[in-house]
Amino acid sequence: MNHDGPVYDIAFSPDGRYLATASNDRSARVWEVGNAKEVARMNHEEIVLKIAFSPDGRYLATGSADGIARVWEALTGREAARLPHTNTRGVLVFSPDGRYLASGEDSCGAVKVSEAPTGREIAHIKHKHTPLGKLCGPPSIAFSPDGRFLVTGYFEDRAARVSDAASGREVARMKHESVVQAVAFSPDGRCLATADKGGTVKLWPWGQTTVEGAGTP
Predict the structure, then answer these.
(1) What are residue 29's DSSP bridge partners?
(2) pTM of the full predicted structure?
(3) What backbone phi and psi angles, to 5 degrees, belong to 196?
(4) pLDDT tens-digit map of 159-213
(5) How many C-beta atoms lie closer than 10 Å to residue 129's C-beta?
(6) Cα separation of 58 and 200, whole Å?
(7) C-alpha to C-alpha distance for 119 and 101, rounded to whole angstroms
(8) Residue 160 and residue 202 in contact, taking contact as beta carbons nearer than 8 Å
(9) Strand, helix or coil at 210?
(10) What torsion, rounded to 10 degrees, do the Cα atoms 210, 214, 148, 182 define?
């Protein structure tokens, strides 16, 4: 499976039958794992940096240096939606049900949530702004297992924030002494983990009970 330039990201389809690749040659491609046959090619205006399959394997999301995230039909290469973004070098995450796509920027602490099949933006989540010209890495993003909530952590912000995925409304904030770099929900959705630059990992109960130590805006 060859591109005409460096490959920056790879992802298996959920059923393991296909492999998607993102490349400096301004294309994303989908290959059959069993025989390395190319089944789809998605051409871009700039280099492709990030890719992600939807949970059902029907769609493929790509992030390009042209500042646009795109959603494609994975096995046909047909473009289904475009999600304009200031910078999509960071991260692309589908909700567990495939309904939403969250995209994060490198330098401004913003996360956008869009309807995956249409590209319509439904929420815009902001963290502490990074000074112009300072790149601190993309935000960390994780959906709750039921897809209702989105937890985000950003390198310049000393807090992880949980938002309603459908509206972007902040429902909880987990404070740290250092900047938050990683977040994750447990598979059963009952626990939330947050980690910071200072080497501390915190576990928070999540669900119907109030998150201990979390403040609301």
Answers:
(1) 21, 41
(2) 0.83
(3) -125, 175
(4) 888 999 988 898 988 888 888 888 999 999 999 999 988 899 999 998 644 444 4
(5) 13
(6) 38
(7) 8
(8) no
(9) coil
(10) -140
